[in-house]
Specification:
Number of helices: 5
CATH topology of the largest domain: Rossmann fold
CATH class of the largest domain: Alpha Beta
Bound molecules: flavin-adenine dinucleotide, FE2/S2 (inorganic) cluster
Largest sheet: 7 strands, mixed
Helix content: 10-25%
Number of domains: 2
Distance between the termini: 33 Å
Order of helices and strands: EEEEHEEHEHEEHEHEEEEE
């Protein structure tokens, strides 16, 4: 990759280096980009066959990768305050958004990153986030690190105590349940919110319609791979 990627865009990766098992590509958000070396990182969790095959790829082997694909976060630097909400392997797109805003001169004091994990043992996933000069808070389901409870509840608590600025823009990525909770909270508090959606993506380029999400209030469907994966929260029915 030659240019800094737009945060929220993704790569469609053939998980195997040879053969056809599995046949279809898998989607992964771009996690990080090194401008000197051109190296792109992803962060992923093994959940099934594709990610299991991918986890066996060794350094030096060649992968077939398409991307960057999709529409990412398009946020001006003039926003008052950036609130990033990540759940588990939803860390990458909002990490890259923080990094991208910082490198364009956005004040790190005006970025809050709320990171939701199951337990403290998952903290290494957030190592890079910790290195950014921003405000980072953790929430864990079992209370072993930071706030005890879902990261959406941490968001609600911070909105209630006013520590997220006057007019924050919320950007979130994570499991469906978390995104739905963040969408509901943003609506209730009248805050602008963008969600990076994950759906099963057979083709990744807009032709199969296997990834669609319903437009809120209209009988219209949008392709997560083409119109998304980032949508304004008010646009989508989750
Ligand atoms: C735009 C985008 C960005 C993504 N970014 C990341 C990332 O940065 N890191 C990461 O770990 N994962 C990410 N994902 C999810 C990743 O694509 C899936 O985990 C992967 O495709 C699973 O493949 P598999 O063959 O291992 O699992 P499968 O055997 O295909 O599925 C295992 C289980 O996971 C469910 N599943 C499969 N794909 C998805 C999906 N896309 N969303 C939700 N559930 C799914 C299945 O229903 C099943 O229950 C992203 C998905 C999208 C669409
Ligand atoms: S994955 Fe085929 S249309 Fe989106």
């Amino acid at each position: 990759m030659e240019r800094f990627p737009i945060p929220g865009t993704f790569l469609h990766i053939k998980p195997n280096t040879t053969g056809t098992d599995p046949l279809l590509r898998r989607a992964f958000s771009i996690f990080d980009y090194d401008e000197t070396s051109g190296v792109v990182d992803i962060l992923y969790k093994v959940v099934g066959r594709g990610t299991e095959v991918l986890s066996r790829v060794r350094p030096g082997e060649t992968l077939d990768v398409l991307g960057p694909l999709g529409n990412g976060f398009d946020l001006p630097l003039t926003i008052d305050h950036l609130v990033l909400v990540a759940g588990g392997v939803g860390i990458p797109p909002v990490y890259l958004l923080a990094k991208s805003h910082l490198r364009q001169g956005f004040d790190g004091n005006k970025i809050n990153y709320l990171c939701g994990l199951t337990t403290a043992a998952e903290k290494p996933m957030a190592d890079r986030v910790e290195k950014l000069p921003i405000n980072l808070q953790f929430a864990t389901d079992d209370g072993s690190l930071g706030f005890k409870g879902f990261v959406s509840e941490l968001l609600r608590a911070r909105l209630d105590d006013g520590s997220l600025g006057i007019n924050p823009v919320i950007c979130a990525c994570g499991p469906d349940g978390m995104l739905k909770a963040v969408q509901t909270i943003a609506r209730a508090y009248g805050k602008k919110c963008y969600l990076s959606l994950e759906s099963i993506m057979p083709c990744g380029v807009g032709t199969c319609l296997g990834c669609v999400v319903k437009n809120d209030g209209e009988e219209k469907y949008m392709r997560v791979c083409r119109e998304g994966p980032v949508f304004e929260a008010s646009e989508v029915e989750l």
